[in-house]
Amino acid sequence: MDTPKPDSTASQVPASARAALAALVELRDELQKMHAELEYLRLMLRLGARD
Prior knowledge:
There is one protein chain. The protein is mostly helical. The chain has two helices and no strands.
C-alpha cells in the first residue's frame, strides 16, 4: 500500500486554496482587532456613564 508522505500532501493543495486560507487568517486577525477595539469603546462608554 502506498501511503503519501506528509510533505507531499501540502504541495497537493492548490495555490488558490492556500491563498484563500491566508486571506481568511488575515480577516480573522482584523476581526479580532476590531472586536478588541469595540470592547474598549464599550468599557469607555460604561465608565463615562458613571460621571
